[in-house]
Amino acid sequence: MKAVLMEARGGPEVLRWGEIEAPQPGALEVRVQVKAVALNHLDVWVRKGTASPKLPLPHILGCDVAGIVESVGPGVEGFQPGEAVVLNPGVSCGRCERCLSGADNLCPNYQIIGEHRWGGYAEYIVVPEVNLAPKPAHLSWEEAASIPLTFLTAWQMVVDRLRVQPGEDVLVMAAGSGVSVAAIQIAKLYGARVIATSSSPEKLSAARQLGADEVVNYNEPGWSQRVKELTQGKGADAVVDHTGAEFWPEVIKATAWGGRISLSGASSGSQATTPLAHIFYRQLSILGSTMASKSRLFPILRWVDQGKLKPVVGMVLPLEAAAEGHRRLENRQVFGKVVLRV
Ligand SMILES: [Zn+2]
After folding, report:
1. Are 181 and 140 contained in the same domain?
2. Is residue 48 part of a domain?
3. What's the gap in Å between 299 CA and the centre of ligand 1?
4. Are residues 41 and 65 in the same domain?
5. What would the pLDDT profile of 202-246 be if each residue is shown by its tens digit?
6. For residue 131, how far is its CA from the centre of ligand 1 (angstroms)?
7. Is residue 303 in a domain?
8. In angstroms, what is the span from residue 12 Cα to ligand 1's centroid?
9. Are the CB atoms for 158 and 133 separated by under 8 Å?
10. pTM of the entire structure?
11. How far is the CA of 294 from the centre of ligand 1 (A)?
């Protein structure tokens, strides 16, 4: 099959267009013909070697896939060749206490498609049958591929970790990122008032179109004061953040007394200084978050079917242009997902 092979760790140039033997589906596995694969920052971290530095090479990146079931392995009963699907990116043992209690993203053997196993920068991908979900019929392939990883991540942050309530003020950092595009919509679905931050007037305007009630430019010094003003001096009750060390001091200041911050990344660096007095005296909660239980894809897809959650595709490129896609993602030039068409 044709694929974009990661042949070394490094810059976008390590991604090479080539041929490799297509994987065969084993028992309870399905081979999917990839139609679209969305890029995530995780792809960049794996490419650079900051995530999974010991992965055998060549490797195939790509966690977010939409496609058509091409063939099924022994024992597969729920799907047949020809069905349109989206892939759930988390793979876990399915037997341990955490898997069986619905916390499969805390399974000791938890893997992400495209990180710990071959992903979707290819014509075909093999995944366990339990990782398939029907593709929402009204979406394009590119839109469908834009859903899983970012909406799952945002769902666990907003719903499971922050437990956002109607009427709360929710601050969503870096509104142009895939996770934040999803978090704005999910927080609105749960009845919150959303304050979104971004770095340019164009992205702030796009955040408003997604449903953000207020927008703040976080490139302006002291931007947390603006969040305070918008909340009558209180600050945000709940914060969705993955912006990292550069913005962390202001994120803490922008959070209300008793507020919660959910963190799912640290784009600008992970070595940050936390004023501990703010944590205990103002009674802040910091809630780490990575991915979500596979089960959360079901409510997400129901809301997508109803048109209440919408993937945002910022740019579509052919699969061969994966390296260019990585550059665009890293430069943060795009509002919404960068998607490769296969
Ligand atoms: Zn498990």
Report:
1. no
2. yes
3. 22
4. yes
5. 999 999 999 999 999 999 999 999 999 999 999 999 999 999 999
6. 14
7. no
8. 33
9. no
10. 0.96
11. 12
